[in-house]
Design brief:
Length: about 700
């Protein structure tokens, strides 16, 4: 027996030693592969910088990069640096190898631009490929005619003609079509009217110049109505009662109503007898006047909206009938307005919530509670508000992504995804997004999900926000609401004296965690700060500031953004009001406060004139709840975040009313799924920590 026991112990020690050696071998191989990849990244970065400068030294010592995913970018960058010196054979050879990749398409565009400038149409046709953009399609048709082809009004040209806005590169083709008699008055008017509907004044002005002289005044009136509605209305009394003049008048009145409904209404009263408008035009004008009167909460607007004939009603007029009734605290009118909506519109969470509010206000509390309990199964802004009305737990039903699936290996082996992940690792975020967007259509549903999970685990957290926005994906809270930059957000929010969950929610709402996001107004970074505002904050609070570009640095952006939130909270007194000011600006909010000083917070939010700001406040409040849950499990109730007007801001403390979180089978069924129930208070696992138009970081 002792000998048998010793033999068994020896076998166990042998197996354990073998296992240790195997683990060490696997670990060593992984570490060696990681080290090799890091060396390739460093070598690529050096070679790419040389290639972008046109230095042929990029080719030296690149044998080790032949299998590196981004290798095709090197030669393309070198050829594009001075495309005038490139030879057609070089470009042709590169495109034969990499023409379908992003760098190949970029090189092809640059090369075609060069050929177009030289008017070398024969070579242009030889290098042209479809799906490069309207500019290249226009030049391809121009090249065909330059080589003896005939331009006809069908197929490719007709498709371009139907695009409301074309680049300047298409001007020559359009002029050629006009010279050849293809642009008949009927076709020109069709394009003019489409340009008017698309709000494309440049297209309209260009097109009307090709009309016969006698028809140009009618189009010019449309152009004026589109670009300067006030001037159009001032001149309208001199217009003839023609079809095009009536169309221009309708356009001018509906556009002017948006900016100055009083002026538009006065012009309508003065002009309506001069023009024989049809019923559709009258309905459009009356609807616009009533709508923008309502947006300003003017006296009589509720009556005007209710009096609109059915043919003049639009989804906007119907919803603003409710909003005005809410602002008037006319609860029977709220019920009537909601019940006048089509069923599909009435079923939106917003109107379900306010129908219950109106029922409760008119004495039907039992019916209201039934509706609120049903709506409380929705983990949304209105679902949380409904849950607060009946003191129900919040129905957050998380699911955790699997570690690996069969699709994971497919994504890891996909060359396009490899390129996307490598650009991300090199912090070239715009390049990474371009490769991601190009690769994604080639993946099936399971593979796309696997790609999102892989990106998240590598710190690229914004990918999930754009992809997981419907269906069962909505329950992927750890992916959709990442706790990226967690330590920094917690520290800076507490220094500023604001709730960290609010700071997380503003980042999620503003930039969707794209650290180099940039808006059309030049707001930048995670918290979308304007450089001027950021500079003032930095001076006032003695914070680091090195110009607008530093806002792409999360450490700068979050420190300044949290201070700005605190500044707005001190000024307006409540989180939800500060969020409105953050989006629309303090001046706009001050105007709304003057008009809505007596409204309850939920009604105030519902009557915010700007749809973007209204949605922004709703989203940021709901996101605050979800982030609070991710941080603390028991989130502060949404209603406690909506302090009444005149409050003084204070970050929630231990005494703040908090909601339990529970997910029942019924909750899951209401959210479109029914796996096993999740226990009360369940919290998703913490997200991997790291990190509306974005700036290009491409060369």
């Amino acid at each position: 027996m002792p000998r048998l026991r010793a033999r068994r112990q020896w076998r166990i020690r042998f197996v354990l030693a073998s296992l240790v050696l195997w683990v060490l071998a696997v670990t060593g191989a992984a570490q060696a592969a990681s080290a090799q990849l890091q060396r390739q990244r460093e070598q690529f970065a050096q070679a790419y910088a040389l290639a972008q400068r046109g230095d042929p030294a990029w080719k030296h010592d690149t044998e080790a990069l032949q299998d590196y995913p981004l290798y095709p970018y090197l030669e393309a960058a070198y050829l594009m640096h001075d495309v005038r010196s490139a030879r057609a054979a070089q470009v042709r050879d590169y495109l034969a190898r990499y023409g379908d990749l992003i760098p190949g398409r970029e090189l092809r565009r640059v090369w075609l631009d060069r050929l177009a400038r030289k008017r070398d149409w024969q070579q242009y046709l030889a290098f042209y490929a479809p799906d490069l953009g309207s500019a290249y399609d226009c030049r391809e048709l121009q090249a065909q005619t330059g080589q003896g082809g005939t331009l006809v009004f069908d197929g490719a040209f007709a498709a371009l003609w139907n695009v409301p806005r074309l680049p300047d590169a298409c001007d020559a083709l359009l002029q050629l079509a006009n010279t050849q008699g293809l642009l008949t008055p009927e076709r020109l008017w069709d394009r003019i009217q489409r340009a008017a509907r698309a709000r494309a004044p440049g297209t309209l002005t260009q097109t009307l110049a090709w009309l016969p002289a006698a028809q140009q005044p009618g189009a010019q009136r449309l152009a004026l109505a589109l670009s300067d509605s006030a001037s159009a209305l001032a001149q309208a009394a001199t217009w003839p009662d023609s079809a095009h003049a009536r169309e221009a008048l309708t356009l001018a009145l509906t556009r002017r109503a948006r900016d100055d409904d009083d002026t538009a209404r006065a012009a309508w009263q003065a002009l309506r007898g001069r023009f024989r408008l049809d019923a559709v035009q009258v309905d459009r004008i009356e609807a616009a006047l009533a709508l923008y009167q309502a947006v300003s909460l003017e006296p009589g607007s509720l009556r005007a909206l209710a009096a609109l004939p059915a043919a003049a009603q639009t989804p906007l007029t119907r919803e603003w009938r409710v909003r005005v009734a809410l602002a008037r605290a006319d609860w029977p009118a709220v019920l009537a307005a909601i019940r006048a909506m089509p069923e599909a519109q009435r079923d939106a969470n917003e109107w379900r919530y306010f129908e219950a509010r109106a029922l409760a206000a008119t004495g039907a509390r039992v019916q209201a509670d039934v509706r609120w309990r049903a709506l409380a199964r929705s983990p949304t802004y209105y679902g949380f508000l409904a849950a607060d009305q009946v003191q129900r737990p919040y129905a957050l039903c998380p699911r955790d992504p699997p570690a690996r699936t069969a699709a994971t290996a497919v994504v890891e082996a996909d060359p396009g995804m490899q390129r996307a992940f490598e650009w991300y690792a090199l912090n070239r975020l715009t390049r990474a997004r371009r490769e991601w967007d190009a690769a994604l259509p080639g993946l099936d549903r399971a593979q796309r999900y696997a790609a999102v999970v892989l990106a998240h685990r590598r710190g690229w957290v914004d990918r999930a926000i754009f992809l997981l926005n419907h269906g069962d994906y909505l329950r992927d809270y750890s992916l959709r609401f990442p706790l990226a930059e967690r330590a920094r957000v917690l520290r800076d929010a507490r220094k500023a004296g604001i709730d960290p969950a609010w700071a997380f929610a503003i980042i999620r709402t503003e930039s969707a965690w794209i650290s180099n996001a940039r808006s059309g107004a030049d707001a930048r970074g995670l918290m979308q700060l304007l450089p001027g505002t950021a500079a003032q904050l930095a001076r006032r609070d003695d914070l680091p500031w090195d110009g607008a570009a530093s806002l792409d640095d999360p450490s700068v952006n979050i420190a300044l953004g949290t201070r700005y939130l605190r500044h707005l909270a001190d000024r307006f007194g409540a989180q939800w009001l500060a969020s409105a000011a953050y989006n629309a600006g303090p001046a706009a909010l001050r105007l709304w406060l003057d008009q809505r000083a007596t409204l309850a917070p939920d009604v105030f939010v519902a009557t915010i004139p700007y749809p973007e700001t209204r949605g922004y406040v709703e989203s940021s409040l709901a996101f605050s709840v979800i982030y609070d849950w991710r941080l603390h499990q028991d989130p502060v109730r949404l209603s406690a975040r909506m302090q009444p007007l005149g409050s003084t801001y204070a970050a929630p403390d231990a005494q703040a009313p908090r909601a339990t979180v529970m997910c029942s089978v019924e909750d899951l069924a209401a959210q479109g799924d029914a796996p096993p129930p999740v226990a009360a208070g369940t919290q998703p696992a913490p997200a991997t920590s790291v990190h509306a138009a974005a700036p290009s970081d491409a060369p």
